[in-house]
Amino acid sequence: MQNNTNIQENNNHKQLHEAPVSQKPTGRGGTLCRQLLSVFHLLLFLAISGLIVYTEGGPSAFLSLGKRKLVMVALAGVIFFILLTAGDRLSTFLHRTGICRWLELLLLLGTPLAMFAVVQIIVQLTELRSTASTSYLRIIKYAVFDMPVGDFLRNLVIYYFILVLLILLIRKINIACMVYCLLMVLLVLVNYYVTEFRGQAFLLLDAMGMSTAADVAGNYRLDIPIYLGITLLFTVDFSMLQLHFQRLRIPHRLQKKSLHILSQLVVLAVFALGSLYAVVNAANVSFWNTNRSYRDNGYLCALVSQVRYIHPEKPAGYSVGKVQEIGEQVSDSTQSNVTVPQNIIMIMNESLTDFESIGQVKTDSEILPFLHSLNRNVKKGQLHVPTFGGGTARTEYEALTGNSMYFLPAGSVPYQLFVHDPESGMAQILKAQGYTTIAVHPNNASNWNRANVYADMDFDQFISTENWGNDSFDKIRNFASDETTYDKLIKLFERKQSGEKLFTFCVTMQNHGGYGTETLNGYQPDVKLHYNREYPLAETYLSLARESDRAFQKLLSYFEKVDEPTMIIMFGDHWPKIENGFTASVLGKKRSELSLDGTQKTYTTPYVIWTNYPSETVEQDMSSNYLGSYVLSLAGATLTPYNHFLLDLKDKLPIIGIGAVCDTDGTWYSQNNLPEKFQKLVNEYHILEYNNQFDQKHKITEYFSIEKRPQ
């Protein structure tokens, strides 16, 4: 009798934990969960729909988009309404037909394929930007069906791996599939909006700068154009389909066995690591046109491939002995008989670009008349910078340290990843020679980790909004004006002690991105463009650039009357992100269609080195990694061997660009196609930079820093 009872209990236990694979979740908890998730999808669907209408100009403008687009939006809405109101009943009906299990399996296996298509469609929209003359079917064809088979398969490895991982972690297949859909879309939307706001694709290491990006995010408008909106609406439909129709479940007996789960994860990890290793090393990423790599090679594959660029590579032939050998061969390039300035003011002007030097700007107003008029006691030209539309700190890092982003992981921001205490550079060199060193930034001290970085660089003081004091702080739009920032520089000069030497480094904010009408805050742009299309963002930006030109003229007018020898350096950090149509008209073609050397033009900003004492006037182009050493030499400062090396290299390769270098004849060479003589020079630079920035244990400090002189 006892045996029969045990057998019956075991059978009941077995039936309880071995539910059919397609069994529908039951109970009040399961129903409540689906209801909450349905409400979430409803809110998401309504938010996307509202943003589409808002982006397209309101209800009346939205209705004039065309029948095909409206039909697709309506179809997405009908599908969503059916799933929302009758999804469970339809699912139950299909379940009773007996073919549901196969449909559920096909839905599960097809989910990565569907999300691959969605992601690549959004990547294609990111690349096209304007889709007025392109049909949605053509976009789908380019995005999905034109990809080489090898790249397609490499992407599928990643897509299936992520889905399996989510299923193992969440343990609910339908919930895991929903999270998977939303996660994939969110990941590709990051690239879409990063490209929209700064004009440069999202890179893996950009994630480190999210806090700074969030600080200025309020100055950008979140738009959802019609084709992007259609894609997102159908993705929400697909996610709802998973909620109601995906009833496959992991058997209870497997859910209870932690050892089995652990073994699953181990097997998956081994498979994934091997597969991802193959993927990472198979795909190439073009960092001067990353969105094209995302389009041609697949977004996730190209994104994951960036893993191999995260850690700075040790240069070929690196050793401490090689560093010493290069340092001993450096020639002394110190300039003799130069005036040593009592004041050095170095200004990095936010988003300042000289479009008039690139091509024709159709306007009645000259944008930078004062900068163009400077022809006495001035060095000026185009400065090639390592970033576009954002990433200010990359240009700043090159100018202050002499190190080049050319050798660092693409997308990285050294201020957040690589700076050490102490950090060799201009501030340390000038401080060792008797200058008081002050950094100024009319915004948050935490931006790009500057509070910590400036201390590591040996700045004596950092003035930000947190400790600005009682001096005026006038704004244009939502940012401190250049004029009020320059007034602060004048106050610092006036307050210094008699005979004190002062080095001030300033990063402005006036021209920061986000040029839409909603950010003007009462500011009235005064530049009008004359094109067939309107470019309000460009008009706002160009008006701000004129304000910068006027403020700089006022600053120089003040120091013209100062008796103390003063050197003022001003340069832009990167191009602004404004309408693609405007930049295409200036460049002669779309940025995505430019050749290698054409693309390099979009990484140029103006620079000026002015003195209030007699000095030679020179026009030359260079890259920002040389700027600091060049300024130090003009100021008659004692230079380090690293400074001497950079000045020697500048005479042979005046521009270290984005994935390419330019020689003195103006010929560009891609990173993978360098002549042997230039390979040697670039590798020597890499060796010195690696010792300076990464081999702290064996760093030859005297090559990069100056011993402090006794007072």
Automatic annotation (TrEMBL):
Question: Which topology term describes how it sits in the membrane?
Answer: Multi-pass membrane protein
UniProt keyword list = Cell membrane, Membrane, Transmembrane, Transmembrane helix
Q: Does the keyword Methyltransferase apply?
A: no
- Region: Disordered; residue ranges are 1-26
Q: Where is the composition biased (Low complexity)?
A: 1-10
Which superkingdom, per the lineage? Bacteria
List residues of the Sulfatase N-terminal domain: 342-637
Q: Where are the transmembrane segments?
A: 36-55, 70-90, 102-123, 152-170, 177-194, 224-245, 265-288
* UniProt-annotated location(s): Cell membrane
Pathway participation: Cell wall biogenesis; lipoteichoic acid biosynthesis
UniProt key word Transmembrane helix = yes
| PANTHER family named in the record | LIPOTEICHOIC ACID SYNTHASE (PTHR47371), PHOSPHOGLYCEROL TRANSFERASE I (PTHR47371:SF3)
**Name used for this protein in its record:** LTA synthase family protein
Q: Which source organism? A: Blautia difficilis
